[in-house]
Amino acid sequence: MAAVTELTLSALSLELEAGRVSSVEATRGCLDRIAALDGQVKAFLAVDPAQALASAAASDARRAQGKRLGPLDGVPLGLKDLFCTTDFPTTAGSKILEGYRAPFDATVVARLRAAGAVFLGKQNLDQFGMGSSTEHSGAFPSHNPYALDRTPGGSSGGSAAALAARFCFGALGTDTGGSIRQPAALTNTVGLKPTYGRLSRSGVVAYASSLDCPGPMARTARDVAMLYQATAGADPDDSTSLRQALPPLTLDAGVKGLRIGLPAEYFGGGIEPEVEALVRACAQALERQGASLVPVSLPHTRFALPTYYLLACAEASSNLARYDGVRYGPRAAGATSLKDLYEKTRSAFFGDEVKRRLLLGTFALSAGYYDAYYRKAQRARTVIARDFTQAFGQVDLLLGPTSPAPAWRLGEKLEDPLRMYQMDALTLPASLAGLPAASVPAGFTAQGLPVGAQLIGPAFEEARVLQAAVALETAHPWHQKAPVL
Amino acid sequence: MPRADFQPVIGLEVHAQLLTRTKLFSRASTSFGAEPNANTLPLCLALPGSLPVLNAAVVELAIRTGLALDCTVNEVSEWSRKHYFYADLPKGFQITQYEHPICEHGGLDVALPGGDKRIRISRIHIEEDAGKSVHDGAAGASLIDLNRAGTPLLEIVSEPDLRSAEEAAEYLRTLRGVLLALGVNDGNLEEGSFRCDANVSVMRHGATAYGTRVELKNLNSFRFVQAAIEVEIDRHVELIESGGAVEQETRLYDPDRNETKAMRSKEDAHDYRYFPEPDLPPLVVSAEAIAAARAALPELPRAKQRRYVSALGLSEADARFLTQEPGSSAFFEAVLQHYRGEAKKAANWMTGELARLRNASGEGRVTPGALAELLTAVDQGRISSNAAKEVLGVVHQSGEAPSAVIAARGLEQVSDTGAIEKVVDEVLAKNAADVAAYRGGNQKLLGHFMGQVMKAMKGKGNPQLASELLKKKLGG
Hey, which end of chain A has fewer CB within 10 Å, N or C? Predict the structure, then answer.
């Protein structure tokens, strides 16, 4: 039998259930791989082997007594370090939260804990989720297991890299403008950004409140679906969480009869030809399974990038005002006044990309500019959302590339923020519209770099997105191609 | 008389702390006097990942207040963030309502010497309070207490309809009375649970445009509100008369020197960078909830005053006295539940002897039932008015039943005609010469006989009966 870490989450769950594999074995398998290989991948910010093995042993004990909590009981997972956890530090990948310990678990973490999941540790990210490459982590950049000199994407790049490297079976990430989907696309993994509000934001370090979506990441759509089911649903601690009951999943329903829209704006200009070709192949695979392909247009797509950066930065400038060195986190030495304390602390411990976005957001909200920037961006957001509403009048799902390009070399775009921002161009629209979207493996470029296809559904239709994702991975089981480390 | 040439224009912004058990957006307690930072949950400390969840009780109190102040209650209002950096504002912003407040377009009738005047209320919105900074000069440190951070406040903003410091103070008193009657606020200016800022300007009589306004802060008593506005009006008039100009700024009132001092100029004003709060959906209030709140509104002080005057025959002054605090009117109305005599008499005792006792030694232990019992005893002639005052004093201290005090102190009047008649006969028999003089025309001697009768009865004789009997016997 192959190494336990090669199993998908769903397969491991069945092995655990059958008693053919123990949680301790699976957890030790992950820990051993992390110990051996994370020096190259740099996916984790914190790992706690003793604690992970203890919860794995507890899970095995439950199963021995016939008291398994459910399909996730004993499954080793990773968490992007934007989720508050009582048993690991929570840093948001930033020096400004160095040493911070949260007194409460994020709601979604608590749900996984209650389901018996084993937490291996906290995973790297661009600090506060601001970035597309993990190069804006306050600790170190993560590396793409399929090409170690390249980025695994971001901001949930540590989680994506860990999944590709077989360090864990699943992970929770967050997606504000593409931070789950884009790293999934760059690492041959699957990531779901649910409908806004579907997973609680309580206990998730905020970047841009109206856009932040926690979501599951794994190596297959079925795995993602299992994590989604365990974490989704109304939370009284998050006033923006959706109150509707979760519709049942329909993973095996296939795509026969589904109308799949191919937005003109997602193909062509700015998209690398190899990426486009692989995504078109996905469309054809769905067509062969009985879906019909419909050309559609999302005419305001090009406004998504400026709209997103105005709104997200405006909200960030507000959400990050609390990091002032007064109540928690490090405090700069030698301050002579309160204002000086703020300036010194924030200058010393925020990363450059965070500072860039806080300056941009502060400007967009300032007196005299609010109407021209923030208010206009809100209007643009409405128009972008309307594009989707109109498209979903004709089709059931949309399909396009997740990222316009495969993984780029670390350092390549670091000095050019605008080029970096353009890597989010195709994930931003669904974020602004609050729609569920997933990235699934679409194959590899000639150079061997993974490419992802993005499926976007109407609001609340996660089930339909996952159903098509399962159909795609059944047709093209790209996820089986592991990186060589 | 330059001042007489100018018309002051004043608007008030009142911040009233709402009487809820928990904070506006968290389950942290609002109890007063807890250890510093004891009443804090993750949101009060702005811990990463903490989110606001609206306390529904606050909305109910806001609706109640809006309706009592004749406002339109908006079925949809919106939360906004107001940003500034300060150590006792943990999130770096205050959640408030900006473009779309919960209540608008109201008004409050204020009783002024010239008759009622309606002061328009432009808006009422809900917001959270900040914490408290204590600057410890000796230690060279500032201490932060976040117990108050997140406490719910109503900001009630008047139009600039007030025309003098007296009007402003009276508006405040009236508003405070309404909030007390509604049970939404405790009306405590000194402790800061009822705070007021004043916008003051002056313009020449007949002018159509308002003058430049100044915002006054630190007005933590009715007296200070009035005094601060007075000195500020004087300052404006002097400035203008001497060829200067008023600058738009925020000024702080210094009660020790009775003057205002510049605190912040227009140029230094914060850019609060308001924007809609993305962590909270718009606040939606159903028409049913508004209707239910309207139906449950208590009688408000001004309506009570009018009723006390017209239906119960009280003086305007007594009616106002009794409606200043809901406790007073409730007490008064409870007395009337037990007392069948004239309401005016009950009011006289409350505004007179009982108020005197309470001023001198605190709230005391007189219950409405006790006062009613006492008044009934006076009406029935069982005790004299003077004895009743004595009894009230004892009850105020001890809380005993008036009947027990009357019995223990032997204050009951003798109203038995036979007993009094016997004493009267004895007194007249002993004073035959005076009786003859009285009958001869020296009517003043009646007092002398009364004194003798009361003395013989050790002060317990019913004076009215004694006087009647004396007159009858002497006349015979």
Answer: N
